[in-house]
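For reproducibility, we list the full input for the guanosine-5'-diphosphate complex.
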Amino acid sequence: MPATVLIGAQWGDEGKGKITDILAQKSQVVVRSQGGNNAGHTVEANGVVYKLHLLPSGILNPETLCIIGNGVVIDPKSLIDEINQMSKHGISTANLKIDARAHVIMPYHIKLDGLFEHLRGKGEIGTTKRGIGPCYCDKAERSGIRMFDLINKHTFERKLKENLAVKNKILQFIYNEPPLDEKDILGEYAQYASILAPYVADTTVMVYDAIKSGKDVLFEGAQGTLLDLDLGTYPYVTSSHPISGGACTGAGIGPTLIDDCVGIAKSYTTRVGKGPFPTELFDEVGDTIREKGSEFGTTTGRPRRCGWLDAVILKYSVRTSGLTKIVINKLDTLSGIGNIKICTAYKKDNEIITDFPADPTQLELCTPVYEELEGWDEDISGVKTFDELPDAAKKYIKRIEQICSVPVWMIGVGPRRDQNIIVRGD
Ligand code: GDP
Ligand code: IMO
Ligand code: MG
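The corresponding predicted structure, in tokenized form, follows.
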């Protein structure tokens, strides 16, 4: 699979962690290129459930080089907690590298994330409150602190002083909050710097060399297409680029080096946080999907909003990320749910819309146009091949391929490594 980009094709939580872990067993390098610890990637292996936020999901394979690229924002405390958690499970992070250019989440970013949300009131985005947006703001504003600065005592002191001069004014005079103490932060972050320094490198060189020498390199996307800062349901999005293009800027490589783009989707749709969601279900079916699929956030524990599969969204992902194949996870969750619906278009007034609308306020006015398919009752969580699936499940998958004009590569029938059906290829 030389250089493969794996992205979330919906609103995140599609099971990217599980698929990355599986593919990582055949990859020499796994790279996270955007987002931060807003991500929550679940990997179930050897009877243990791992919740990964910043560590690439290849970390369970001791031979795999795991890279946190320049496009990621890093909360050092959260990363160190994760490294320690792994160590408790006997998993080494010796093969972890962090790009020197990655930006650092500071205490004021976390504080301001919560305060901005409070100020937005009813218009809140429903962020994970991990400081992601404010950290990317500073990056764009060019006042951010990078890993390179964190491990350089004098630069860090200078940049912290400069930043606090502004942030403390905002905290005090706009939000009526006490200022943050420079000495406290210096002491805390000096400790983080000494722990993380050995991991810091120019990872763009490592990624390039790995691809050029023919190694299998996997780019593990975080979030999903509709949370993309440009192409998602703005402003209800995250502050990075989860589409496949984000892997280029976030890992420092050119698009010609990428061979394959794989989209991960669920057999239905979920969303956590605010914003439009045309196929959302407010009835018993939605509750059943939430319960059966354990649809509660990996990072914040919030119940996820659930709805039918939206093929307009999948087609949008195929187009904006150039997807060559897709994975449909959680097909097992739909067993016994009755007839199944796929949204094939939207209707607004008397107009039929087949392309995902650029304006999210228009999306709010859209109602889904559904195609109804027969469901199945069999438990499919132990099924190993496509042929063994109930006919109705096969028809559902084939219909998705037809509508989205993209082959389904794998099907997930459970959270474990061995609960996946390879439909075609290896
Ligand atoms: P990610 O953020 O895309 O990595 O996804 P999350 O880990 O946040 O959420 C996916 C959830 O679904 C996790 O709890 C996984 O263990 C679980 N999961 C993944 N694939 C399947 C599947 O095929 N069937 C079932 N039942 N659960 C799955
Ligand atoms: P993974 O990688 C689902 C959502 C938040 C909120 C919006 C902005 O596990 O799929 P942020 O904290 O990023 O500023 O929040 O984005 N969000 C996610 N939703 N899965 C994720 O990651 C998400 N990361 C952020 O809920 O709506
Ligand atoms: Mg998740």
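Residues 8, 11-13, 38-41, 125-128, 130, 132-133, 222-224, 227, 236, 238-239, 272-273, 298 surround 6-O-phosphoryl inosine monophosphate (ligand 2) (CB under 6 Å). The CA atoms of residues 325 and 406 lie 6 Å apart. Both points were considered when choosing residues for closer inspection.
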